[in-house]
From TrEMBL:
GO terms for molecular function: 16S rRNA (guanine(966)-N(2))-methyltransferase activity; nucleic acid binding. PANTHER family: METHYLTRANSFERASE. Belongs to the methyltransferase superfamily. RsmD family. Transmembrane segments: none annotated. Its EC number is 2.1.1.171. It comes from Pseudomonas batumici. InterPro entries: DNA_methylase_N6_adenine_CS (IPR002052), RNA_MeTrfase_RsmD (IPR004398), SAM-dependent_MTases_sf (IPR029063). It catalyses: guanosine(966) in 16S rRNA + S-adenosyl-L-methionine = N(2)-methylguanosine(966) in 16S rRNA + S-adenosyl-L-homocysteine + H(+). This is Ribosomal RNA small subunit methyltransferase D. The lineage of its organism: Bacteria, Pseudomonadati, Pseudomonadota, Gammaproteobacteria, Pseudomonadales. Specifically methylates the guanine in position 966 of 16S rRNA in the assembled 30S particle. It is an enzyme of class 2 (transferase).
Length: 205
């Protein structure tokens, strides 16, 4: 997944075209996996991932997880490691998808699926499954979050009380999220905002 790297661990400059991410908790705890240099790919820092999964601790096991902008797969793999029942990952980059698919094979994970797809087109055209947990870390400066969130809500991709995680260059209060999404937690690291939202099925968006 994307976000600015921690300078001490993952410099902005590639090391011979190979970078690494570390799974923090769960079945594959401490496993290190490489991922390719793809433009715009910014794995969520370890510290932020640890904070996020502390927030989500009671809700990951048994959850259905969707990651429409998977990138390195850091968040997707972390959720599967921690007991998510199934996961669907998408990315527009064939290189990123190939790498993530290889990781799933290495980890002998049979409940995660990944495919090359444009997130907006996929959410608009495919038959919806109600997901319990969604990670949204789209490329920055393209204003993708409002459209993706609207499709998640309108096309019924979310369980009644789904959790949605967002990374953005804009403050959560200005993202224009659906009206029935409640901001649960937020954090800022550098210039990036991290937020966790909970959907309520009982309020009109």
């Amino acid at each position: 997944m994307a976000s600015p790297s921690r300078p001490s661990k993952k410099p902005a400059h590639p090391h011979n075209g190979v970078n690494q991410l570390r799974i923090i908790g769960g079945e594959w705890r401490s496993r290190r996996l490489s991922f390719p240099d793809v433009p715009g790919l910014r794995p969520t820092p370890d510290r932020v991932r640890e904070t996020l999964f502390n927030w989500l601790a009671p809700y990951v096991a048994g959850a259905k997880v969707l990651d429409p902008f998977a990138g390195s797969g850091a968040l997707f793999l972390e959720a599967l490691s921690r007991g998510a029942a199934m996961g669907q990952a998408l990315d527009a980059s064939n290189v990123a998808v190939s790498s993530l698919r290889e990781h799933l094979g290495t980890l002998r994970c049979s409940v995660g699926q990944v495919q090359t797809a444009d997130a907006l087109r996929y959410l608009e055209t495919q038959t919806a499954t109600a997901f319990d947990l969604v990670f949204l870390d789209p490329p920055f400066n393209q204003n993708l979050l409002p459209g993706v969130c609207a499709l998640l809500e309108e096309r019924r991709w979310l369980a009644d009380d789904a959790w949605v995680y967002t990374e953005s260059e804009a403050a959560p209060s200005g993202l224009g999220m659906p009206g029935n999404w409640r901001l649960h937690r937020e954090q800022k690291s550098g210039r990036v905002y991290y937020a966790l939202w909970q959907r309520s099925a009982g309020v009109d968006g």
